[in-house]
Amino acid sequence: MKKYLIFALIIVVCLFSFFIIRMGTHNSVAPDASKSMTFPIGPYKLGTAVKDFQELEEISPSEYNVIQKKFEDEKIYKAPATNFLGLTWDMMLLGAVGDKIYRINPGYATLDKNQANEAFMKTLTYCKSKLGEPSAQKTDSFSWDTSDGDVVLQAASTPEEFLVLLFLTSANVKDFKKLK
Asked: Which residues contact 68 (CB under 8 A, 6 or more apart)?
């Protein structure tokens, strides 16, 4: 199961890179009051100080070789699993720049396809209730532009399990200095 979690993590990194590029084109100077704000995942909310969470563990140097930093002063953390929507989600990544959380990437994994579909639909319904209709969608992926960033919901699978992935990314990434 652990090797599949690593596979899922690689998927997350690839997708995250795509969304960082997308966020880099975010032209909003001030928050758009007509849009909803992102929501917390368990105790984690975009913009919260990392020091508020004693349970976070920065990833190891070998993990940084796989999950490379994108910004100066960036740290990537592992966090304990958290309850969200009555389900236990693995906190795949928390990213922080300047001690503030700018990305939250929880994932829900199950061996049961029906259970994954139920979790996906429950999450989609929740996102729509909080954020309205998605600004973009594909078969297994929905995204919302919010006043403080982006939220992406995606279904994925490995040969062994089915995944529901969430990506919450702060609009502040447009102001971060990228690593060369």
From this structure: none
CA distance 133 to 116: 21
CB 135 within 8 A of CB 91: no
Which of 7-16, 25-34, 116-125 has maximum average pLDDT? 116-125
- Cα–Cα–Cα angle for 159, 161, 164, rounded to 5 degrees: 125
Q: Chain centroid to CA 54: how far?
A: 20
Which of 57, 74, 76, 56 has its CA nearest to residue 66?
A: 76
Rounded to the nearest 5°, which phi and psi values hold at 82?
-135, 155
pTM of the model: 0.82
Q: What is the pLDDT of residues 127-159, one digit of tens each?
A: 999 999 999 999 899 999 999 999 999 999 999
Q: How many angstroms separate the CA atoms of 13 and 44, rounded?
A: 19
Rounded Cα distance, 36 and 130, in Å: 7
82 domain-assigned: yes
Residue 167's Cβ-count burial label (10 Å; 0-12, 13-18, 19+) is buried
Cα 89 from Cα 107, distance rounded (Å): 5
Position 136 in a domain:
yes
What are the φ/ψ torsions at residue 168 (nearest 5 degrees)?
-110, 125
Could you give the number of structural domains in the chain?
A: 1
Question: Is residue 32 in a domain?
Answer: no
